[in-house]
Write a structure and sequence with these properties.
It contains 10 helices and no strands. It is 68% helix and 0% strand.
Length: 311
């Protein structure tokens, strides 16, 4: 698939934003993360800022962005529409939680309830985003048991690393949050390796014969039905060289998983402010690595429509 930067940034930013929002809502509402004004203000601004930036960037991939609002009406049948509805609905408890936790300095009671609803909404929204791709049967690399859990794991991973950096920056870091961020990063690495292994061994049952319904021989494409590349080939038939894919996989592992894990271990051993610096570097490296990982997620996927072009 063609890895448009707008969609790559959308999936990276919203995943991290919803992951951070879920942690702030769940932990801030019960008082595990203290109701400090500047901590809460920066945390909620970062979470909601990433979500809004991601959602706005996704409209850049639309031919008519001004008609994006019409997608909300198809929630009965479209995961894209359900994602839009869930993302908007999540803002309601998120704003209520922000008012109570940040501006009123409260936790527990209705603030905890709003935080829990915001966390639940964040999880549901990430699930709908994952299902947009997991439900696409023509793309075998996405239509697998690995896609939806990957979205949830990566959201938890990037959100927890951001939350740890936030707490460390305000000298409120905890061993529990550090440990959770490290475990989530290692879990994301293991899941990504498992996904790549599955995709590399994937045997796609569809071929030119089954796609055309012809039997009695081997169907092959003699020539294209047109003289230049069109929308289908640009969007559905993107090709990446094997050596480039291997190099980008190593970059993904180094930036998204290995470097953050090492920096988080260093943060365990060092006092503040060095632990804060290591934690912030871990978050920056991981977000950069996830941009590469998301680019590969789209670039390595193959749509069965390319069978009609002899690919």
């Amino acid at each position: 698939m063609h890895p448009a930067f707008s969609v790559v940034f959308f999936t990276t930013a919203t995943g991290a934003g919803y992951g951070l929002l879920a942690l702030l809502g769940a932990l801030g509402g019960v008082g595990f993360i203290p109701a400090d004004f500047w901590l809460g203000f920066v945390g909620m601004a970062l979470a909601l800022g990433l979500i809004v930036a991601g959602l706005l960037s996704s409209t850049g991939h639309l031919g008519r962005p001004e008609r994006a609002w019409r997608a909300f009406s198809q929630w009965r049948s479209s995961w894209l529409s359900r994602e839009g509805v869930a993302s908007v609905a999540t803002f309601i408890p998120a704003v209520l939680f922000g008012i109570g936790w940040v501006f009123l300095g409260k936790s527990g009671g209705w603030v905890a309830a709003a935080g829990s609803l915001a966390a639940a909404g964040a999880v549901v929204t990430v699930c709908t985003t994952g299902m947009i791709y997991a439900s696409l049967k023509p793309v075998a690399q996405w239509h697998s048991r690995y896609t939806l859990p990957a979205y949830l794991i990566f959201a938890a991973m990037t959100g927890s690393v951001l939350a740890n950096a936030l707490l460390q920056g305000f000298e409120l870091g905890s061993a529990e949050m550090l440990a959770w961020a490290l475990l989530a990063t290692l879990a994301g690495w293991v899941w990504k390796l498992a996904t790549w292994r599955y995709n590399d061994r994937l045997e796609i049952p569809t071929n030119a014969n089954t796609a055309t319904g012809l039997a009695g021989g081997t169907v092959r494409s003699i020539e294209w039905p047109h003289t230049e590349e069109n929308y289908l080939l640009k969007e559905m038939g993107f090709r990446i060289a094997r050596k480039h894919s291997a190099k980008l996989r190593w970059i993904t592992q180094a930036l998204a998983f290995i470097a953050p894990a090492v920096l988080l271990v260093i943060a365990f051993a060092l006092p503040w402010p060095f632990a804060a610096i290591a934690s912030v570097l871990a978050a920056v490296c991981q977000l950069a690595g996830m941009l590469v990982e998301r680019w590969l997620f789209f670039a390595e996927a193959k749509h069965t429509v390319t069978l009609y072009y002899g690919r």
